[in-house]
Specification:
Number of strands: 28
Bound molecules: adenosine-5'-diphosphate, aspartic acid, magnesium ion
Shape: globular
Helix content: 25-40%
Structural class: alpha/beta
Number of helices: 16
Mean pLDDT: 91
C-alpha cells in the first residue's frame, strides 16, 4: 500500500462544510488503496486573528508565548477533521506536533525541524487509521519540551518533512488556487497554471514572494527527492508537479539543518564591466541591456544600486570573449548619459578583464543568514577581496580577482567541510541553452521587504564579513547585496556604499545593529527605506538566452517605473521599485513575457 501525505491550507478547512469535504477526499484516497497522513492548517484566518489578539495586549509579545498561542489554531482543525472522518466511518486520530514527535530547535517562531519520530504514526497507519497532524508546530528537543512553530505558512513544511521522514510516495498540497500559477492570481487574474516547475525555480519564486508554498517545504522536497504536487481543494484537476532531481540518500537526522553547502562552483573566464555615475531615472538599464542583447551578448550577473544621492552604478559580468562587444556598447552609451545637466561628474566605464566567479551552492542556504556570512569571513581570512556579490536562494556568488580563485576555493572547501572537487561552471554564454524550460516560468512580488543603504564604509577587506556576520547573529537574512563599484576618498580613506534588502519585520533590528557597528567603526550612515517592493522573474530557461533581463527592464521603463536596485542570479532577475509601483510592475512584467492565459482564476474567499 502506498503512503500519501496530504496537506490542506486554511481556506480549505475554513468552515464545517469545507472540513467535511476534505474528509470525503481523504476517504476517497483511502478507498483507492492508500495509507494517508493529513496535515492541516488552522481554519481560515484563525492564525491572523490570534496574532491580532496578542497585539491588543502587547506591541512586542514574547516569542515563546506567541508559539503557545498560535499553535492552538491547528489543534482545533485536526480534532474537527478527525471527527468528520470518523462520521464517515473512517478510523482517524488527531495528533499535535508534540504527540507525533516533530522535534525542532528551540528557536521560537521560526524553529527548524531536527527529527520526526515515526513509530507512533506507523503504528496507527498499520492499523488502517488516518492520522491527522497539526501543521506548523513542533516540540523542542532537550528537557524543556517547549511548543514551537515553524514560521508563518509553515504547515507546508510540516507536510513535506513528514513525507520525507515516512518515505511517502507523494506529498499533495491542497490549496485555494488550481496549483502554482505564473503569478499571484489575486493580482493578475489571467495568471496561468503550470503543469510542472523545478524545485530550484520554485525555491526562488517562494522566497521572492509567491506564498503558495513555504520555501522550506521546497527545500526539503529537493533535499530528499519528495514527489510534491500542489492542487486545488475544490476540483480533481492534477495541479502542478514540483520536480526534483533524484538526490543522493541523505540522513533524516537534523532534517532541516543538514549540510547547507553541497558544492563549490567557479568560473575563471569572466570579465566585469561597470558603468559608474549614471543618472537615476527610468530607462537607463533598459537601454544598456537592450543594446547588449541586440549584439547577442549574454550577461551573467547584473547589479545596480543608487549611490551618491541621484547617481547609480551598474555592473555586469560576461564571458571574457564577449568583453569587447559589451565594452563597446557601454562606451557608446556613456557619453549620452553624460549630457545630463544635473551631473557634475561624468559617467564612466571601467572594465576588469581578469575576474572569476566563485559560488557556494546548496538548498540549505535558504533562510540561513549565517552561511553567506561564513563565506565572506572565509574569503576575508584568505585575503580575498570581494568585488561583487550575488545571492539567490540556493547560491551565493562572489566576483573576485582571477588570481585569487585557487585560494578562495581551498578556503571555502575548508570552511564548509567539502571534500568533493569544486565544479567548473563555465559562464552561461558557453552553456547550451535549456530549450525545454521556459525563459520565464513565473513572476513574483514581495511587498514585505525594506531597503538598507550603508554609506561611506571604509573599503578594507573583511567589511562584508563583518556586516553580514552582525546581521547573521541576529538571524536576519539578507538579499540583493550590492556594493558600489566606485571608491570615494573621504579623509584619505577610500570608502564604498553598500545596499541590501531585508524582510521589513527585521529592518529596525538590522538598522540598529548596523548603526552600532557604524559607530564602533566610525563609518558614514545607515539609512532604511521600508517603502519598497521587489519584483522578480524566475526561469531556468533564461540561462544562455540573452535579452531576458533587458525585456523586463524595457517593460518597466515603458511605464516610467524607476529601478532602485537590480540583482540577478542564474535563474532570476529581481528589481526593487517604489512600493506604490509594485503591483503595476508585476502586471506589466507578466504581460511582457506573454504569461497571461485566456481564462481567469477566481480565488474563493
Ligand atoms: P494555504 O492556506 O492553502 O496554505 P496560502 O494563502 O498560503 O494558502 O497560499 C495560496 C495563495 O498563494 C493563493 O491564494 C495566491 O493568492 C497566492 N499566490 C502567490 N503567488 C502564487 C502563485 N505563483 N501561484 C499560485 N498562488 C500564488
Ligand atoms: N496557520 C499557520 C499560518 O497561518 C500555518 C499555515 O497555515 O501554514 O501561518
Ligand atoms: Mg500556505
Amino acid at each position: 500500500m502506498a503512503l500519501i501525505v496530504q496537506k490542506y491550507g486554511g481556506t480549505s478547512v475554513g468552515s464545517v462544510e469545507r472540513i467535511q469535504s476534505v474528509a470525503r477526499r481523504v476517504c476517497q484516497t483511502v478507498a483507492s488503496g492508500n495509507h494517508v497522513v493529513v496535515v492541516v492548517s488552522a481554519m481560515g484566518k484563525t492564525t491572523d486573528g490570534l496574532v491580532g489578539l496578542a497585539r491588543e495586549i502587547s506591541s512586542n509579545p514574547s516569542r515563546r508565548e506567541m508559539d503557545m498561542l498560535l499553535s492552538t489554531g491547528e489543534q482545533v482543525s485536526i480534532a474537527l477533521l478527525s471527527m468528520a472522518l470518523q462520521e464517515l466511518g473512517q478510523s482517524a486520530i488527531s495528533l499535535t506536533g508534540a504527540q507525533v514527535g516533530i522535534v525542532t530547535e528551540s528557536e521560537h517562531s521560526r524553529a527548524r525541524i531536527l527529527e520526526i519520530r515515526t513509530e507512533r504514526l506507523e503504528r496507527h497507519l498499520n492499523e488502517g487509521t488516518v492520522v491527522v497532524v497539526a501543521g506548523f508546530q513542533g516540540i523542542s528537543s532537550g528537557e524543556e519540551l517547549e511548543f514551537t512553530t515553524l514560521g508563518r505558512g509553515g504547515s507546508d513544511t510540516s507536510a513535506v518533512a513528514l513525507a520525507a521522514a515516512l518515505g511517502a510516495s507523494q506529498c499533495e498540497i491542497y490549496t485555494d488556487v488550481p496549483g502554482i500559477l505564473t503569478t499571484d492570481p489575486r493580482l493578475v487574474p489571467q495568471a496561468q497554471l503550470m503543469d510542472e516547475i523545478t524545485c530550484d525555480e520554485m525555491l526562488e519564486l517562494a522566497s521572492l514572494g509567491a506564498k503558495v508554498l513555504h520555501p522550506r517545504a521546497v527545500e526539503i522536497a529537493r533535499n530528499y527527492g519528495v514527489p510534491l504536487v500542489v492542487r486545488s481543494s475544490w476540483t480533481d484537476e492534477p495541479g502542478t508537479r514540483v520536480i526534483s532531481e533524484v538526490s543522493p540518500t541523505r540522513s533524516l537526522h537534523n532534517l532541516e539543518i543538514t549540510k547547507a553547502v553541497d558544492a563549490i562552483e567557479f568560473d575563471t573566464d569572466q570579465a566585469k564591466v561597470a558603468l559608474l555615475r549614471v543618472p537615476d531615472r527610468p530607462g537607463i538599464a533598459a537601454r544598456l541591456f537592450g543594446e547588449i542583447a541586440r549584439r547577442n551578448v549574454d550577461v551573467d550577473l547584473i547589479i545596480q544600486s543608487i549611490h551618491d544621492g541621484n547617481l547609480n552604478d551598474i555592473a555586469f559580468t560576461v564571458v571574457s570573449g564577449m568583453l569587447p562587444k559589451a565594452e563597446a556598447v557601454a562606451e557608446a552609451i556613456a557619453p549620452v548619459l553624460r549630457s545630463s545637466p544635473q551631473q557634475t561628474q561624468e559617467a564612466e566605464v571601467t572594465v576588469d578583464r581578469r575576474t572569476a566567479k566563485i559560488s557556494i551552492a546548496g538548498a540549505g542556504i535558504v533562510g540561513r543568514p549565517g552561511i553567506a556570512a561564513q563565506m565572506f569571513a572565509a574569503l576575508f581570512d584568505a585575503g580575498v577581496n570581494i568585488e561583487m556579490i550575488s545571492t539567490s536562494e540556493v547560491k551565493v556568488s562572489c566576483v573576485i580577482d582571477r588570481e585569487d580563485c585557487d585560494r578562495a576555493i581551498s578556503a571555502l572547501c575548508l570552511a564548509f567541510d567539502l571534500h568533493c572537487s569544486p565544479v567548473h561552471m563555465p559562464n552561461t554564454a558557453s552553456v547550451p541553452p535549456n530549450t525545454n524550460a521556459p525563459l520565464v516560468r513565473g513572476v513574483a512580488l514581495d511587498l514585505n521587504q525594506a531597503r538598507l543603504a550603508l554609506r561611506r564604509i571604509p573599503d578594507v577587506p573583511g567589511m562584508a564579513a563583518k556586516i553580514f556576520g552582525v546581521l547573521a547573529q541576529k538571524n536576519i537574512s539578507v538579499d540583493m547585496i550590492i556594493q558600489s563599484q566606485r571608491c570615494r576618498i573621504i579623509d584619505d580613506t577610500p570608502t564604498r556604499d553598500l545596499a541590501c534588502t531585508v524582510a521589513r519585520a527585521d529592518a529596525e533590528t538590522a538598522c540598529n545593529a548596523l548603526r552600532d557597528l557604524a559607530e564602533l567603526w566610525d563609518w558614514g550612515e545607515v539609512v532604511v527605506d521600508p517603502h519598497v517592493a521587489k519584483v522578480s522573474i524566475v526561469g531556468a530557461g533564461m540561462v544562455g538566452h540573452p535579452g531576458v533581463a533587458a525585456r523586463m527592464f524595457e517593460a518597466l521603463a515603458q511605464q516610467g517605473i524607476n529601478l532602485q536596485m537590480i540583482a540577478t542570479s542564474e535563474i532570476k532577475v529581481s528589481c526593487v521599485v517604489a512600493e506604490e509601483e509594485g503591483v503595476k510592475a508585476l502586471q506589466v512584467i507578466h504581460q511582457a513575457f506573454n504569461l497571461a492565459g485566456k481564462e481567469t482564476v477566481e480565488v474563493p474567499v
